[in-house]
Amino acid sequence: MPPPTPSHVLVTGATGFIGAHVVDNLLARGISVRAATRSNQKGEQMKAARPQHASRLEFVEIKDFSQIGVFDNIMDGIDGVIHVASSILSAAAKQPLIKRLVLTSSFASVVDINKAPDPDFTYTGTHWNPLTYEEAISPATDAVVAYRGSKKFAELEAWGFMEREKPSFELVTLCPPMTFGPVVHPVAGVGALNESNAVLWSIAAGADPLPVARVSAWIDVRDLAEAHVQALLRPGVGGRRYVPASGEAFSYEVAADIIKRRFAWAGETVTGNYESGRRPLPGYRLDGEAVTRELGVEFRRFEETVVDLVGQVKERFA
């Protein structure tokens, strides 16, 4: 029998780029949300912007998500968890109403950056980056490698917790690549945009040369939020690990073409110092089809994502 649909969900990292979209997706379904944030001010700003949901949206401030036991006192009445921040499994295991926990990981925990490009190769939820723990924590390791290691071993610890403790809830993890799209969380200005959106906006603002994309895989934040909620609600997906991603490769050259084509003002700002019209050649694929098949998520086109983000930033901040 599938678990009952949750009625009161805890979302961590709720005032962040991805977490705020997850909150909105849940509220739109009539599901009450308890939102954990490091900043009460941002929480109040989000709540004030959603007066129609005031009775079903509450914020709790947690200054340090890394402290042991910090989530224990906010689990009462919670029957589902979407975790876009730090470790929470021990607290969730103490709440018997919780039947599933969705954890946001990263494609960094999946990809092997030393693997030769192979357009016929597809990364799935069964793949892990090959970094050892010793490599990840070595003082000689650079920040990018350390980040990949931190994502891998944090997620492995979550799966290890499930194996050791056998809690009453199921775990689903999502490992998304670069995430773009309009913002619904409090943002004071262009300088406060999350990194991926800031890079995308820099093209519209005149970056020359264009940024270089390390990978061609991406996802729209709204589709990623939908994947989180469906991973919580759908029967039969407990214990799964997904790499949600559009099947359409992206590059910043493609983004520049879109911006110039869709915004008349961009002809004066976007550099011409690049090869226009060149399509990206993906070095590999991601198994977004599993997300469509099992979670029912249909992915937006890159053009829609670019237009929605650039149009929003131009209107609000530029």
The helix/strand class is alpha/beta
Outline the biggest β-sheet.
7 strands, parallel
Radius of gyration: 20 Å
Mean pLDDT, to the nearest integer, reads 94
Strand tally is 11
| Beta fraction | 5-15%
Amino-to-carboxy terminus distance = 52 Å
Spans where pLDDT lies below 50 across 5 or more residues: none
Sheet with most strands: strand arrangement: 3-2-1-4-5-7-10
The shape is globular
In brief, what are we looking at here?
With 318 residues, the chain is α/β, with parallel strands linked by helices. Helices cover 35% and strands 13% of the residues. The chain is built from ten helices and eleven strands.
Give short descriptive properties of this protein:
318 residues; alpha/beta; seven-stranded parallel β-sheet; two-stranded parallel ribbon; 10 helices; 11 strands; 35% helix
Task: Give a description of the structure.
- By secondary structure, this protein is of the alpha/beta class.
- The chain is 35% helix and 13% strand.
Helix/strand layout:
Elements (H helix, E strand, L loop, with lengths): L7 E5 L4 H12 L3 E6 L2 H9 L8 E5 L18 E4 L5 H5 L6 E5 L17 E2 L9 H5 L5 H23 L4 E5 L3 E3 L14 H10 L13 E3 H13 L7 E2 L9 H11 L22 E2 L1 H8 L6 H15 L2
Parallel strand pairs: 1-2, 1-4, 2-3, 4-5, 5-7, 6-11, 7-10, 8-9
Protein name: NAD-dependent epimerase/dehydratase domain-containing protein
Organism: Petromyces alliaceus
InterPro entries: Epimerase_deHydtase, NAD(P)-bd_dom_sf, NAD(P)_dehydrat-like
